[in-house]
Design brief:
352 residues; alpha/beta; 13 helices; 14 strands; 20% strand
Length: 352
């Protein structure tokens, strides 16, 4: 039936991964997500999983590559500069078509930046991040409960499509404490005949690689990847709507800012402004068709994308709206979290 606890976001994330049957974690401490590896170290004696603090994020990503190739359910967590260091390995894993979970608990940047929350890694997450033509499934939790729910879902999607899946969280969600319902532990029974876990006598060797010297072979791999991404876009779009039935002003936000924007919607409604929230949960695949359908509604005046960055998701909103309605942007940077009242003020200015 599940167990209810009061937990910090990072610790709930780690506990949920344990209950989802994780077999290995390879990572490197970086604020504001270091509680994940600390929690896993504390719980390790009770379970049979491999926990290793790598010498760097580069090493951690490549350990994930090797363990995933052997058929293990593996994951890692990091924060913005750390995920930048992992990009080469992530591209290898995507090309090799291996299931793995990456979690980025974002902090302000660019550079080493600040340890405060940010959403400045949106482009990196949804546009690939590393080299080559690939995509990650990207889930954007906005609560401690969704940290739990999404890591479980991430493992399932990774295995379903043999692809790396990412959770794009931030320092505020990682550090906040909320009541969560934890899932019952689920034994993991892998069915991965492709894995490099030893060669039985009745089959040929399994070979996993991301290196294809011949151009024709590399192009065929890319065709296979693009076909898979098309299938993911058709079947795995997730989003949330809040008070969108009679909406005049559409607010778009993901993650932490979507929680704040719910309060903005309530404040606006109290003042006679018919605002609503359309929240993408999967940042990739992006709910472009669904947002486009909202833009077709005659009463909708404009869209406002609210983000903790200089304007990133707003580009995908504009592509989805396709010029049917105005699309505006409001953002804060450097770890500053916008308030519901200031967002409402922005809406009022545009309504003028």
């Amino acid at each position: 039936m599940g167990e209810i606890q009061f937990m910090k976001g990072n610790e709930a994330l780690a506990e949920a991964a344990i209950r989802a049957g994780m077999q290995g974690y390879f990572g490197y401490p970086i604020t504001p997500q270091s509680e994940v590896i600390e929690y896993l170290a504390m719980e390790e004696p009770k379970y049979n999983y491999c926990l290793l603090q790598a010498e760097s994020e580069v090493a951690a990503a490549n350990m994930i590559y090797g363990a995933a190739a052997a058929g293990a359910r593996v994951w890692t967590t990091t924060s913005s500069p750390g995920f930048s260091l992992m990009q080469e390995g992530v591209s290898y894993i995507a090309c090799a078509q291996l299931p793995a979970v990456f979690v980025n608990v974002e902090r302000g940047g660019p550079g080493l930046g600040t340890i405060q929350p940010s959403q400045g890694d949106y482009f990196q997450a949804v546009k690939g991040g590393g080299h080559g033509d690939y995509n990650l499934i990207v889930l954007a939790p906005n609560s401690v409960q969704e940290m739990v729910d999404h890591v479980t879902l991430a493992f399932e999607l990774a295995d379903k499509y043999n692809t790396p899946v990412m959770l794009l969280s931030d320092g505020a969600i990682g550090q906040m404490m909320e009541k969560v319902k934890l899932p019952d532990p689920k034994p993991y029974q892998p069915d991965k005949p492709w894995a490099t876990n030893g060669k039985p006598k009745d089959r040929e060797r399994n070979i996993i690689t991301s290196l294809y010297i011949k151009s024709e072979a590399m192009e065929e791999v890319n065709r296979i990847l693009q076909a898979k991404y098309k299938k993911i876009k058709e079947n795995e779009v997730r989003y949330e709507e809040y008070k969108m039935d009679d909406v005049d002003v559409v607010i778009n936000a993901f993650g932490l800012t979507s929680r704040i924007c719910k309060k903005t919607v309530d404040l606006a409604r109290e003042q006679g402004i018919k605002a609503g929230l359309f929240r993408p949960i999967t940042l990739w695949p992006f709910p472009e068709k669904e947002i486009g359908a909202v833009a077709d509604q005659d009463q909708v005046k404009f869209f406002l994308s609210v983000e903790m960055n200089a304007g990133q998701m707003v580009e995908d909103i504009k592509l989805a709206v396709c010029g049917k309605k105005p699309v505006y942007f409001y953002g804060r940077q450097g770890g500053i979290v916008p308030t519901p009242e200031e967002i409402l003020g922005v809406i009022k200015e545009h309504l003028k």
